[in-house]
């Protein structure tokens, strides 16, 4: 069974979805580690409730981004991490982390990339008055939501939808799609 590390910065709704998929047997993986970059983030308590090892790395205490990422890589390697899953991790990754885990770091984004990359994708979609947005799962590269797309799913925005309505539609898709995509990647990896 593959070991995955989840990197998160916030509330952890996608973290919850991944954990639940593992518990149901829909995702055949061992969640070996949660790495969080924010002291006190709600996702930390969620990981502790599931007895998932948690490490909080505060980037400010490191000399630079490369030193911070080297510490992340060291921790992941010490736990034999096969894949890194970003679930609301709000940092761009650099070469120190990307190189050893090339094509083994995935992210989920609340838009149909390449539309609306970066922060507040739902707000961006509403500002542009688009009728369709969605969810993208992609490999991570050194850009802002620019890595190769693995899968996408669209949702319709109705005229009277509020931002909260759209957020709920997006999260419903994310919480189903992300574990499915991770599982398909792990199955492909096993068949190599």
Automatic annotation (TrEMBL):
Pfam families: Formyl_trans_N (PF00551). Pathway: Purine metabolism; IMP biosynthesis via de novo pathway; N(2)-formyl-N(1)-(5-phospho-D-ribosyl)glycinamide from N(1)-(5-phospho-D-ribosyl)glycinamide (10-formyl THF route): step 1/1. The record marks 145 as: Raises pKa of active site His. One of its GO terms (molecular function) is phosphoribosylglycinamide formyltransferase activity. Residues 3-182 form the Formyl transferase N-terminal domain. N(1)-(5-phospho-beta-D-ribosyl)glycinamide binds at residues 12-14. The keyword Transferase applies. It is an enzyme of class 2 (transferase). One of its GO terms (cellular component) is cytosol. Keywords: Purine biosynthesis, Transferase. Its EC number is 2.1.2.2. It comes from the Bacteria. Signal peptide: none annotated. It catalyses: N(1)-(5-phospho-beta-D-ribosyl)glycinamide + (6R)-10-formyltetrahydrofolate = N(2)-formyl-N(1)-(5-phospho-beta-D-ribosyl)glycinamide + (6S)-5,6,7,8-tetrahydrofolate + H(+). The active site is at residue 109. GO terms for biological process: 'de novo' IMP biosynthetic process. Belongs to the GART family. Catalyzes the transfer of a formyl group from 10-formyltetrahydrofolate to 5-phospho-ribosyl-glycinamide (GAR), producing 5-phospho-ribosyl-N-formylglycinamide (FGAR) and tetrahydrofolate. NCBIfam families: PurN. This is Phosphoribosylglycinamide formyltransferase. It comes from Halobacillus halophilus (strain ATCC 35676 / DSM 2266 / JCM 20832 / KCTC 3685 / LMG 17431 / NBRC 102448 / NCIMB 2269). The gene is purN.
């Amino acid at each position: 069974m593959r070991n995955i590390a989840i990197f998160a910065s916030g509330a952890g709704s996608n973290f919850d979805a991944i954990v639940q998929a593992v518990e149901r047997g829909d995702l055949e993986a061992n969640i070996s580690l949660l790495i969080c970059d924010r002291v006190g983030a709600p996702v930390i308590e969620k990981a502790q409730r599931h007895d998932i090892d948690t490490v909080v790395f505060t980037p400010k205490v490191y000399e630079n981004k490369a030193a911070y990422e080297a510490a992340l890589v060291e921790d992941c390697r010490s736990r034999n991490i096969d894949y890194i899953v970003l679930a609301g991790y709000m940092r761009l990754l650099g070469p120190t982390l990307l190189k050893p885990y090339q094509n083994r770091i995935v992210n989920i984004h609340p838009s149909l990339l390449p539309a609306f990359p970066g922060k507040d994708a739902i707000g961006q979609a509403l500002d542009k008055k688009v009728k369709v947005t969605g969810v993208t799962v992609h490999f991570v590269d050194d850009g802002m939501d620019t890595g190769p797309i693995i899968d996408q799913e669209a949702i319709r925005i109705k005229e009277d939808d509020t931002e909260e309505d759209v957020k709920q539609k997006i999260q419903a898709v994310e919480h189903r799609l992300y574990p499915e995509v991770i599982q398909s990647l792990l199955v492909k990896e096993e068949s190599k």
